[in-house]
Specification:
Layout: E1 65-71, H1 77-88, E2 93-95, E3 104-111, H2 118-123, E4 126-134, E5 136-138, E6 147-150, H3 157-166, E7 169-173, E8 182-183, E9 186-187, H4 188-193, E10 203-216, E11 219-226, H5 232-243, E12 247-257, E13 260-261, E14 266-267, H6 268-272, H7 276-281, E15 295-298, H8 300-307, E16 312-313, E17 319-327, E18 330-339, E19 342-348, H9 351-358
Helix pairs in contact: 3-5
Length: 359
């Protein structure tokens, strides 16, 4: 006898390959079992992988302005910049001088066209409130290092005031090994971590004021006004050496940079709590960085020519740096210098940047 043929799969309804009622499906048409781990039993059909929502990225936008940020402790300056940049969805941004993770306080952040004048804030005088821990020297000059020497603290108010006066005015400093200053393209702290000591030439700085705010031994709190490039850690160590007991920097807060003050700054947490429009309202115009420079006003015709880079004749004394505006309507155009009665452009806004900054 000839064996009966196996029933073939045929079309039923709208589905191809399904068996008709009472028929047995071919092996190819049977559903595949879920994969079974070695030594285990199948527990049923495999669950489909959860569908992931597509990642929606908010597009970056061109913003032109300055955000005064109160940097939190433990964050690098770049950490703070990237966080604020993300919250503002800004295309381009930069900070105006590094604050160590230990330090808190004023960190002006520049976005868009404002980055053209970040050097003005970098070069400006700075103001700090510093807390010195007397009686201890550390490997880094601040509280983050290991204590390498400990001495008794036996000082009085006249000696403290004399030590502060000794380091007021023009002084020479060596940059700390644990600093971001570059040597042959690499930061000094990178050498320090490898146990390498790099020769550093003393550099001139200006300390305008050291005021004793509070002294509760073994700590001193000082307000310090100084030029750019002044290392407060080095100043703390020098004052401690002058007092004969050693010292390190226990806390540091930048309270001002040029005419900008930390009282006008916003914290990261406060910025995060704002909606988008409120965050945009925190942006100051780019020329806030140049507020201490003399200003020059140009008529509309003269302003248009100045924006093309043409020199303009002005009846003004020579000046190394000025900020330039169109007079009606008032609009910031850029920075320049004056030589021999000529206004010579240094950095200019584009017409679109002028329009955006004015808006």
């Amino acid at each position: 006898m000839t064996a009966p043929e196996a029933p073939s799969a045929r079309l039923t309804g709208n589905h191809a390959g399904e068996p008709a009622p009472g028929e047995v499906a071919s092996a190819a048409a049977l559903p595949r079992p879920a994969s079974v781990p070695s030594g285990g039993a199948a527990s049923g059909p495999a669950k489909p992988a959860p569908r992931q929502r597509p990642l929606v990225r908010t597009p970056r936008r061109a913003l032109h302005g300055v955000l005064l940020l109160d940097k939190p402790p433990g964050w690098s300056s770049n950490d703070a910049l990237q966080k604020a940049k993300g919250m503002l969805h800004a295309e381009k941004g930069g900070h105006t001088g590094t604050l160590d993770p230990l330090a808190t306080g004023l960190l002006p952040l520049c976005f868009g066209a404002a980055t053209k004048w970040s050097h003005a804030s970098l070069d400006a005088d700075k103001r700090y409130r510093a807390t010195l821990q007397l009686g201890q020297r550390t490997s880094t000059g601040d509280r983050e290092g290991e204590v390498v020497e400990q001495r008794a603290v036996d000082v009085d108010l006249p000696r403290i005031q004399a030590a502060c006066a000794r380091f007021t005015g023009a002084i020479a400093q060596r940059a700390p090994m644990h600093s971001a200053l570059k040597h042959e393209g690499k930061a000094l702290y990178a050498y320090a971590r490898q146990g390498i000591e790099v020769e550093r030439a003393p550099r001139p700085v200006q300390v305008h004021r050291i005021e004793l705010v509070e002294w509760q031994l073994p700590q001193l709190t000082l307000d310090i006004d100084c030029s750019k490039g002044t290392y407060i850690r080095s100043l703390a160590e020098d004052i401690g050496a002058a007092l004969g007991c050693g010292a390190h920097l226990a806390a540091l807060r930048r309270t001002g940079s040029g005419l900008l003050a930390v009282a006008d700054a916003i914290t990261i947490d406060a910025l995060a709590a704002l909606d988008d429009d409120e965050r945009l309202q925190r942006l100051l115009p780019p020329d806030v960085l140049l507020a201490a420079w003399p200003e020059v006003l140009l008529t509309a015709d003269e302003a248009a020519r100045f924006l093309t880079g043409l020199r303009r004749r002005v009846d003004l004394a020579d000046a190394a740096a000025v900020r330039v505006y169109a007079s009606a309507p008032r609009a910031f155009l850029g920075s320049a210098h004056i030589t021999g009665g000529e206004l010579i452009a240094d950095r200019l806004l584009s017409p679109l940047e002028v329009q955006a900054s004015t808006a």
